[in-house]
Amino acid sequence: MVRYNKVIELLEQDKPVFCSGLVWNGNVDDMTFVGDADYDMVIVEMEHQGFSFNDLRTMLQFLMNRKKVSEKGSLQADPAPFVRVPPNFRERNQWVLKQALDAGVYGLVLPHLDNVEDAQAAVTAARYPQVPGVADFEPEGERGWW
């Protein structure tokens, strides 16, 4: 099964995942080079420099290699964009995770995730809440459209 997130697909197949080095948020030149290379994923650095969701959205446009999409015949991101968010997760700044995912990244790198409770809170923050009494496929939300 082809997944939108290439990293999940490779991990399910017990295959290695190759990642570029960190790309500073806002550096569209490096993002273009990474998009043309054969990496499976890229991590956009927002923890130590460049906390701007507008820059992140712009960079994601430069990551997409339209020729690769056409040749592949799939909308699977190649490479899959991940972002390292600024707050230590123990701070529970869940809005940052939601905004990063809404910008279009496929995964999150969470600094200082220290325990199971923090990991569970991160998963909860990364998903839209289920409306009581509604079937599991609702609400789709913006992240479901990417």
Automatic annotation (TrEMBL):
<dbReference type="InterPro" id="IPR005000">
    <property type="entry name" value="Aldolase/citrate-lyase_domain"/>
</dbReference>
<dbReference type="InterPro" id="IPR015813">
    <property type="entry name" value="Pyrv/PenolPyrv_kinase-like_dom"/>
</dbReference>
<dbReference type="GO" id="GO:0046872">
    <property type="term" value="F:metal ion binding"/>
</dbReference>
<dbReference type="InterPro" id="IPR050251">
    <property type="entry name" value="HpcH-HpaI_aldolase"/>
</dbReference>
<dbReference type="GO" id="GO:0016832">
    <property type="term" value="F:aldehyde-lyase activity"/>
</dbReference>
<protein>
    <recommendedName>
        <fullName>HpcH/HpaI aldolase/citrate lyase domain-containing protein</fullName>
    </recommendedName>
</protein>
<keyword id="KW-0479">Metal-binding</keyword>
<keyword id="KW-0456">Lyase</keyword>
<dbReference type="Pfam" id="PF03328">
    <property type="entry name" value="HpcH_HpaI"/>
</dbReference>
<comment type="similarity">
    <text>Belongs to the HpcH/HpaI aldolase family.</text>
</comment>
<feature type="domain" description="HpcH/HpaI aldolase/citrate lyase">
    <location>
        <begin position="35"/>
        <end position="130"/>
    </location>
</feature>
<dbReference type="InterPro" id="IPR040442">
    <property type="entry name" value="Pyrv_kinase-like_dom_sf"/>
</dbReference>
<dbReference type="GO" id="GO:0005737">
    <property type="term" value="C:cytoplasm"/>
</dbReference>
